[in-house]
Amino acid sequence: MLKAIVVDDEQRARESITTIIGKLFPEIDLLGEAEGVESAFHLIEKGKPDVVFLDIKMGDGTGFDLLRRYQRIPFKVVFITAFDEHAIEAFKFSAFDYLLKPINTNELRATIERLKDQLDQEEELSVKIQALLSNVNSMNIEQKKIVLKTANSIHLVKLVNIIRCEADANYTWVYVQGQPKLLISKPLKHFDELLDGFGFFRVHQSHLINLNFVSRIDKTDGGTIILNDNTSIPIATRKRDQLFQLLENL
Questions:
Q1: Quick check: helix, strand or coil at residue 80?
Q2: Mean of the per-residue pLDDT values for the chain?
Q3: Is the whole model's pTM more than 0.70, yes or no?
Q4: N or C: which end of the chain has fewer CB within 10 A?
Q5: Is residue 146 situated within a structural domain?
Q6: How far is it, in rounded angstroms, from Cα 180 to Cα 107?
Q7: Which CATH number belongs to the domain containing residue 221 in this structure?
Q8: At which of 105, 136, 167 does a domain end?
Q9: Do 11 and 114 belong together in one domain?
Q10: pLDDT digits (tens, 9 = 90+) for 95-149
Q11: Is the pLDDT of residue 193 over 90?
C-alpha cells in the first residue's frame, strides 16, 4: 500500500484529488492534507509518505521551497499546477509526473498506475530533483538540463551538450558531447517534441540534430549534413528548404 499526502492551498483541489483516490484507489492510504509549505513539512516528517501530491504556488511559499529543505528526498513527487508553461517545461525535462488543474480523473488514474508500478530509487529521485530545481531557476537555455534514463543508469545532461538523437525502433540513441552515447527507451518522437524550440531539428525520419553542431552541408546526392564530430546525416527531401532557412537565421 502506498502512503500519500496532498499539499495544495486550494481546498477544492485537495478535495478533488482525495475524493478520486478514495473512490478508485483503496490501495492508497491518504495520511492527510496540507495547505502550505510549513504544514506540509510537519505532516511529511510525521507520516513518512511514499508519495506527495504537491502544489507549486502556495501562501507561504512554493512546492520547490519545500523540496529544498531536504538534502535527500525520501518520497515520490507528483506536481499539481495551473497551466504554467515554464513549470511544465521543467517537469518534462526532469521526467517528473504532473497534474494540471482542474484535476482530470483519467490523468490522475494514469499517474497513480505509474506510481504503483515503480517508485523511484533514491539516487534517481535526487538527480531528477537536481534537474528540476536547475530548470525552474533558469530561463537561460545554456543552463537547462534533461534527465536521461538508460536501462542501468540515470544521467543529468545539459541541452546544449546534446549533439543529436537517432531512432532505433522504439528506442533512441542520444549522442552527448564528451561522453558515450546513451540508449533511451523512448521513441525519437518524444525527443522531437520535448526539444522543440531549443535549437533542434528533425532533419530526417530517423535523425534529430542540434543545429549548433552543424559544420557544413554537402548538397550532392540529395543532401547530407556534416556535424562537428564528423557524423554525416542524410537530409530528407521535404526537410531541405526548412533546414536551410533555419541555418541562415542562426
A1: strand
A2: 89
A3: yes
A4: C
A5: no
A6: 36
A7: 2.40.50.1020
A8: 136
A9: yes
A10: 788 888 888 889 888 888 887 766 556 667 778 877 887 787 777 788 889 999 9
A11: yes
| pLDDT tens digits for range 162-181 | 999 999 999 999 999 999 99
Q: Helical H runs in the chain?
A: 11-24, 37-47, 63-67, 85-93, 105-117, 122-137, 188-194, 240-248
The domain containing residue 180 runs over which residues? 158-248
Q: Is 16 a domain residue? A: yes
> Which residue has cell 525502433?
169
Is the Cβ–Cβ distance between 246 and 211 less than 8 Å? Answer: yes
Q: 144 lies in a domain?
A: no
Q: Is the same domain home to 15 and 130? A: yes
% pLDDT > 70, the chain: 96
Q: Show the cell assigned to 204.
A: 530526417
Given 83, 106, 136, the domain boundary residue is 136
Is the backbone peptide bond immediately before 49 cis, with ω within 30 degrees of 0?
A: no
